[in-house]
């Protein structure tokens, strides 16, 4: 995994290092601990813009096979969210439930605000 990661990115990415990059529409994590940290950070910020952000966790084990499967599932989830464009807040419960049923994967999600 380490060899593959070295070819993909310079160093591990931390939410704290990237959170100031701008306003995100969606934040996708692959470990519950990271999801909890992102949610906590967002809840501790002052909410000035009142712009919603969808935070989703899809637990993926840290091995080649699971990473490949997780990447495909993440892409599918992103495509489903893009298809509903700005109306995701209205249908997110149904979209997540359908995704979980189709892929037999449990997702955790939370809506926060900037």
TrEMBL record:
GO MF annotations, alphabetized: protein serine/threonine phosphatase activity
InterPro entries referenced in this protein's UniProt entry, alphabetically: RNA_pol_II_suA
Top-level taxon: Eukaryota
Top EC group: hydrolase
GO cellular component terms given for this protein: nucleus
Keywords per UniProt: Hydrolase, mRNA processing, Nucleus, Protein phosphatase
Keyword Translocase (UniProt): no
Entry's localization field: Nucleus
Keyword Hydrolase listed: yes
Protein's GO biological process: mRNA processing
Catalytic activity: O-phospho-L-seryl-[protein] + H2O = L-seryl-[protein] + phosphate; O-phospho-L-threonyl-[protein] + H2O = L-threonyl-[protein] + phosphate
Gene3D superfamilies: 3.40.50.2300
EC id: 3.1.3.16
Main localization of the protein described in the UniProt heading: nucleus
Protein family (similarity comment): Belongs to the SSU72 phosphatase family.
Function, as annotated: Protein phosphatase that catalyzes the dephosphorylation of the C-terminal domain of RNA polymerase II. Plays a role in RNA processing and termination.
The protein's name: RNA polymerase II subunit A C-terminal domain phosphatase SSU72
Organism: Aegilops tauschii subsp. strangulata
